[in-house]
Design goal:
This protein has 349 residues and is α+β, with helices and mostly antiparallel strands. 25% of the residues lie in helices and 29% in strands. Strands 1, 2, 3, 12, 13, 14, 15, 16, 17 and 18 form a 10-stranded mixed beta sheet that branches. It has a 6-stranded antiparallel beta sheet with strand order 5-4-9-6-7-8. Strands 10-11-19 form a 3-stranded antiparallel beta sheet. Strand 6 and strand 7 form a beta hairpin. It is globular, with a radius of gyration of 21 Å. 48% of the residues are buried.
Amino acid sequence: MEIGNLDKETDFIMEQAVNLLQIDSPTGYTEEAARYVAGQFEALGYQPQRTVKGGVLVPLAVVPGSEGLLLEAHTDTLGAMVMTVKENGRLKLTPLGGLNANNTEGENVRVVTKDRGVYEGTIQLTDASVHVNGAYDQTARSFDSIEAVLDEDVHTKEETEALGIRPGDIVCVEPRTRITKSGYIKSRFLDDKLSVAILLGFARWIRERKLTPDRSVYVHVTVYEEVGHGGSASVPADVTEAVSVDMGCVGEGLGCTERQVSICAKDSGGPYDYEMVRRLIRAAETAGASYAVDVYPHYGSDVEATLRAGHDLRHGLIGAGVYASHGYERSHRDGAENTLKLLLGCVFR
């Protein structure tokens, strides 16, 4: 099947990624992002369903008697939660997902209270002034040595609590999204909002061409991937194959770049289905997608949660190459386009 030029679709993907990245959605605080995603699928002419857990399940095509394909991506991100209001009015944090204290220092945050609004602040090392703290360089960064400093005139626990801030409040890290003239996109939380945008672009491509796949195809945008159980439920009955569309890893010892789509052969959860990996490679080659096959040493995906929940299916993992994962991440529009090409080659064989 001739795919043709995808510049328009890639522009749409980048626009959707930027829009979604501006919506705070750390694990456990994903309702606004999920509503946005559902609304975008609905605007494309689909009928998204909200799962009880808060995700978005979208039938792109239902073909009776076929073996269905489920495409999983997640819109929950890393973040933090208020663990304790300290005696000096600052906040001790506990991470949501794999947020790393080493690369959060100096980041602006928004503290979302249960019913008293949102407050701004910054994550800093405790006693953060170099001219005062002689041990600044030697201090190991951990969630015991960093704190959130509120941009409010508070100096005691009681003053902070008077704002309505309590343990359990959500702390959202500023994504700092930027697209460069050379096509790179830099932001926190490209994992996995870039992939959600790619699936929106995939759905748009199908709808605009009025095409019907020869099998059932579903999209599940999950909301608990970063804590390990996002894809554990809401699998349609006819699904026999599932592909997690997440970030592709870029780093030392791996072949993928930010401008490619990565096909994962194995991660920390074990090997992906061998025949699925072979077919994903063939689909990339058929569609003319630049790709790499890699083994990720420290990684887990939605589709592994699907398997651990007891679903009997074949599984795979793909994604646009992303550098500096779980930090200030970077990818490229070419990586998004190559991921879209692979998806099209996989579904329209």
